[in-house]
Input
Amino acid sequence: MGSVIVEASRADLSAVADLVNAAYRGDAARRGWTHESDLLAGQRTDAATLRDELDAPDPSAILVLREAPGGPPVACVMTQRFRDDGDRLLCHLAMLTVDPARQGRGLGAALIGEVERRAREAGCAAVEMTVIHSRAELIAFYGRRGYAPTGRTKPFPYGDERFGRPLRDDLHFVVIEKPLSA
Output
C-alpha cells in the first residue's frame, strides 16, 4: 500500500477539515457508508476548531494517513488522552475518517491500530469513543474490532452548530470502549 501515518501539522488542518466534511456530510458523503447525512446537516468540523483542539490545555493529536509521503490526507483520526472518574488513563478516539472513495480498503483499521498502539505505549488502560446511538452498523464495525458498549451515554451538543445542525431531536451518544493489554 505504501501509505504512511503521521501527526497532522497546522498546514494540514484545512485539508483534514475538507476530508472530514466530505466523508460525513452532504450528498458526496453518501458514496461511503460512514456518513451522517440523514442525521446532521452543515459542517462536521473546520480548520479553526481543529486548531483549537491542538492548542487546548489537554491537546488532541490528529493523525493523518497519506497514500504516499507528502501526499494529501486520505484518512484521519483525532485522539486525546484523559483520566476517567476512576483515575484510569484512557485514550479517546474521535473523528475517524476515510475518504468515501477509499473506504473498504483497510485504511480505517490501520488508523485504529495505530491509535491503539500509541495508547498502549502511553500506558492507557483502554481506548474509548462515542458514537451516535442510531448508527448500528458503525457500532457493529467497532464491535468487530473489540469495542463494546459501556452502558454510559452522553448528550448530543444541540445548539452548537460547529458540529452540524441536527435533523432529529433524539440524538445522543453511546460510549464504547476497548480494553488494552499491557
Summary: The chain has one domain: 4-179. The longest strand covers residues 73-83. Residues 39 and 63 are 26 Å apart (CA to CA). The helical segments are 13-24, 26-29, 47-55, 107-121, 136-143.
